[in-house]
Specification:
This protein has about 700 residues and is mostly helical. Helix content is about 35%, strand content about 5%.
C-alpha cells in the first residue's frame, strides 16, 4: 500500500457526491457508502463513479494549497504577515522535495507539501482509468460515451495540472493491479501528448452543451475545448522550446479552433463583470448558472455532501482587519471573508489597471469596511461609519503627499496638516444608481492607507505586524452564507470561464503574429470591463450580501452586517480629479502592440519587453491579470511563458530566492521517489533517485 499512498494510483472506494447546484435527478441521488471494487465493473457502479469525478475537482479549493501552488511567488500576490506557505512565495530552501513541517521550519502544520497536488491528481486519474477500462460494461451507448467523456476529461485535466507543475510525470493509463512500485518517468513531450490526447477524446465524446448534471457545474464539449486549447498552448509555449518546434503551427491552429467552438457555443460574455463574483447572493443563485462559466467546483449547503474537501477559499484574500483596525471592525459571518491575510496584492496588481476607466478594479478590490463596534465615543465614529478606508491612487497623484495614514493601533489620534483627516466618505447606504458617495468633511476614519505619496509606493508600510497586513483584498470568494465564522463556504468556485477562452485565442494569434485578430479578441474582453452608461462608479458589492438570506441574520449579527458592508468603494478618493459621472468609459485598444495604454507601457518598460512579440505577449499577461486576478492559475501561466523569473523578480519583493532553471518546475515529492523500486525489487540507488528529481532540487 505504500505506492498507493505515495502516488495515489490504485483502486479506491469512492463516495458519489451530490451537489445541490445540479439537476433534480442528480440532487435526488442517494449518497453512496463504500463499495467493493467489483461494483465499479457494473454499469450502475461506473455511472456512480463518473459522478464522483466532480468531487476530485473540489480538492483544489479545500485548503492552503489552493493559493500556494497557483498564486504565490508570482507578480500578482505575495505573503502578508501570515507565513503558512511563505516558502512557496519566497522560494527558500523549505520549498524542497520533502516539503516543510514545523520541525523543518514551517510556520504551522498547514503548510502545503509538494506531494499534495501529486497525490490527489493521481487519485482522480485512478478513478478515470477504471471507467475507461470498463466502459464496455455500459450497454447504453449514449451513457457509455458520457461516462467516457467525463473520464477522459478529468484524466486529461489532471495530467495537465501535474505536467504544468512538475514537468514530465509517470503516465498511468490502466487500472493498477496490486501494489505497483516501479514506474518510468515520461518526458515533458510524452506527458503533454497524454493530456492533449485525453482532452481531444473528451472533446469528441461530449454531446455539445448538454448539462447532464446541472448548468454551471457539468463539464461539456466547451469545457473540454477550453482545456484542450490551454494544453495545446502550453505545449508550444516557451517552457518547452527545446523540443516543441514541430508542433507550433498545427497546435496553435487547433487551439484556435477549439476556442472558437467554445466561444460560439456559449455565446456572449456576461454583461456585467460583477455578476461573475461580486453579485453572488447565496447558495445556487442564478449567477452560478451563467453561460460564461465553463467549469466550477460545485458546493452547496447540505453538510452530508461536503465529502473530503469543503470550500475554504474565503479565507485567503482578506486583510487582517480585526487586528489592525484596533477593534473597530470585528470579523464574523456577516463579513464574507475571514481575515487570514494569506494573499497580499503586489504593487503590480494595483498598477496594472486603468484606475479611471476599468470597472474590473472597482468591482474586485474591497476598499471600505464599516465600523461594527465603537471602541471609543470620543473618536466621533459611529456604528456604520467607515472604519477602514483604502485609497488606491496612482503614482503620479500628489493629492495625499502631506497627509498621514495608518492604523488605529499605531496612530490613534493622527490628523492631517490642517488638523483633521482628509475628506472621507460615509453617510447613506448606497443603491446601484445613487451616483456618488455622501461626503463628510473632517470625519475621523480610524484606519486608512494610500498606495502612493510623492511618487513612492508606501502601501506596505501600513501594518501593525512585522509584515504588511493592511491592504485591499479581492472579493471573488466572499461568502456570507456560512453558518459559522470558520465554517465552509457554500458558493461554487469558478475554474474556467469564457473570457479566458478569448484571451487564450488572442495569445494564439499573437504567437502567429496575427496581431489584428488578437486585438479583436482582447477588445471583446475589455469592452465588458469598461464602465457602462448609468453605472455608479462608487458602488461596491460582494458575496457578503448572501448574509441577507442567512438564518443567522438576526439581532446583533444583522446589525453587524449592515454596519460592516457599506456598498461603497473609494473610486473618487482614489481618482480625485475625476468629477462624479455615470458616463460610459472606453477601454478598447486602437493599436496593438505598437502603442499600448500607459499602465502597460510602464510595466513593459520595467521588464524590458521591447520587441513586437514581447510587447504583445506581456500585454496579454497583463490582461490575464486584469480579467483573472486571483483565479488560481497565475504561476502556471508565467512558468509556461518563460516569464516567471523576470516578472516575479520585478514585481514581488518577497520572491528573493527565485532561481532560473529551477523554480519553473516544482520538486518531485520525495515520498514518491523513496517508495520506488527497481524491476528486481531492489531499492533505487542515490544516483537513480537523483535522476527522478527536477533540476536544482
Amino acid at each position: 500500500m505504500n505506492k498507493i499512498k505515495n502516488i495515489g494510483i490504485g483502486l479506491f472506494a469512492i463516495l458519489a457526491l451530490a451537489f445541490s447546484s445540479c439537476s433534480k435527478d442528480f440532487l435526488d441521488e442517494e449518497l453512496t457508502t463504500q463499495y467493493s471494487t467489483q461494483y465499479f465493473e457494473t454499469s450502475e457502479g461506473l455511472q456512480a463513479l463518473t459522478v464522483s469525478l466532480y468531487g476530485n475537482i473540489r480538492w483544489h479549493f479545500g485548503s492552503e494549497w489552493s493559493y500556494g501552488t497557483t498564486l504565490y511567488g508570482t507578480d500578482e500576490f505575495t505573503n502578508a504577515n501570515d507565513l503558512t506557505n511563505e516558502m512557496w512565495n519566497t522560494y527558500d530552501n523549505r520549498l524542497g522535495p520533502a516539503g516543510a513541517t514545523i520541525a523543518t521550519g514551517a510556520a504551522n502544520a498547514n503548510a502545503t507539501l509538494p506531494s499534495d497536488l501529486w497525490d490527489e491528481m493521481y487519485y482522480g486519474i485512478a478513478s478515470c482509468n477504471t471507467i475507461i477500462a470498463n466502459a464496455d460494461k455500459i450497454d447504453d451507448l449514449k451513457i457509455r460515451n458520457r461516462c467516457l467523456a467525463h473520464a477522459y476529461f478529468l484524466r486529461g485535466f489532471n495530467y495537465y495540472k501535474l505536467t504544468a507543475q512538475y514537468g514530465g510525470v509517470p503516465l498511468q493509463t490502466k487500472p493498477a493491479v496490486g501494489v505497483v512500485r516501479n514506474f518510468t518517468r515520461a518526458t515533458d513531450e510524452q506527458a503533454w501528448e497524454q493530456s492533449i490526447s485525453d482532452l481531444r477524446n473528451a472533446y469528441k465524446l461530449f454531446e455539445g452543451e448538454v448539462y447532464t448534471y446541472g448548468k454551471g457545474i457539468t463539464w461539456t464539449k466547451a469545457t473540454a475545448a477550453h482545456f484542450l486549447a490551454k494544453a495545446l498552448l502550453f505545449r508550444v509555449s516557451e517552457r518547452n522550446d527545446a523540443w516543441n518546434s514541430k508542433y507550433k503551427e498545427t497546435d496553435l491552429q487547433e487551439a484556435i479552433d477549439a476556442c472558437s467552438y467554445a466561444i460560439t457555443a456559449r455565446g456572449a460574455l456576461t454583461n456585467n463583470y460583477s455578476d461573475l463574483y461580486a453579485n453572488w447572493t447565496g447558495i445556487d443563485c442564478p449567477n452560478e448558472q451563467l453561460n460564461e462559466i465553463l467549469m466550477a467546483a460545485g458546493h452547496n449547503g447540505d453538510p452530508t455532501t461536503v465529502g473530503r474537501f469543503g470550500n475554504r477559499t474565503y479565507n485567503y484574500f482578506t486583510p487582517q482587519f480585526s487586528s489592525f483596525s484596533g477593534g473597530w471592525v470585528k470579523r464574523g459571518v456577516w463579513i464574507g471573508g475571514m481575515d487570514f491575510q494569506r494573499c497580499r496584492p503586489t504593487e503590480y496588481s494595483y498598477a496594472v489597471y486603468d484606475h479611471i476607466n476599468d470597472a474590473r478594479m472597482w468591482k474586485t478590490f474591497k476598499t471600505v469596511y464599516g465600523a461594527n463596534t465603537v471602541v471609543t465615543a470620543s473618536a466621533g465614529v459611529k456604528i456604520g461609519d467607515p472604519a477602514i478606508v483604502m485609497i488606491l491612487n496612482t503614482q503620479n497623484d500628489n493629492t495625499y503627499d502631506n497627509a498621514k495614514f495608518g492604523a488605529t493601533i499605531q496612530n490613534p489620534t493622527w490628523k492631517d496638516q490642517a488638523g483633521r483627516l482628509p475628506e472621507w466618505t460615509t453617510g447613506k447606504r448606497q443603491t446601484a444608481t445613487a451616483g456618488a458617495l455622501t461626503a463628510v468633511k473632517g470625519q475621523f476614519v480610524p484606519n486608512s492607507l494610500v498606495l502612493y505619496q510623492k511618487g513612492t509606493y508606501v502601501a506596505p508600510t501600513f501594518k501593525n505586524q512585522p509584515i504588511c497586513n493592511f491592504f485591499a483584498g479581492i472579493n471573488k470568494t466572499d461568502d456570507g452564507s456560512r453558518t459559522a465564522e470558520k465554517a465552509d463556504a457554500h458558493r461554487d468556485v469558478i475554474i474556467a470561464r469564457l473570457a479566458e477562452t478569448y484571451l487564450v485565442r488572442a495569445e494564439c494569434y499573437v504567437r502567429l503574429q496575427k496581431y489584428g485578430l488578437a486585438m479583436q479578441d482582447i477588445n471583446v474582453v475589455r469592452a465588458r470591463a469598461q464602465w457602462k452608461n448609468g453605472e455608479n462608479r462608487s458602488f461596491y458589492s460582494d458575496g457578503s450580501q448572501a448574509f441577507k438570506n442567512n438564518a443567522l441574520n438576526t439581532g446583533t449579527a444583522a446589525t453587524n452586517y449592515t454596519a460592516s458592508n457599506l456598498d461603497m468603494n473609494t473610486y473618487y478618493l482614489s481618482n480625485p480629479t475625476v468629477p462624479v459621472t455615470t458616463a460610459a468609459s472606453d477601454l478598447r485598444l486602437t493599436s496593438f502592440p505598437a502603442s499600448l495604454p500607459s499602465e502597460d507601457e510602464a510595466i513593459l518598460s520595467k521588464i524590458g519587453a521591447a520587441s513586437e512579440y514581447d510587447r504583445a505577449l506581456n500585454f496579454i499577461l497583463n490582461e490575464y491579470t486584469r480579467e483573472l486576478l486571483g483565479e488560481w492559475q497565475r504561476w502556471e501561466t508565467l512558468s509556461r511563458t518563460g516569464t516567471l523569473i523576470k516578472r516575479a523578480k520585478a514585481f514581488n519583493a518577497e520572491a528573493t530566492n527565485i532561481t532560473a532553471h529551477k523554480h519553473e518546475l516544482r520538486p518531485i515529492p520525495q515520498s514518491f521517489i523513496d517508495g520506488l523500486l527497481n524491476d528486481d525489487g531492489s531499492n533505487l540507488s542515490d544516483s537513480q533517485k537523483a535522476q527522478w528529481q527536477n533540476p536544482g532540487y
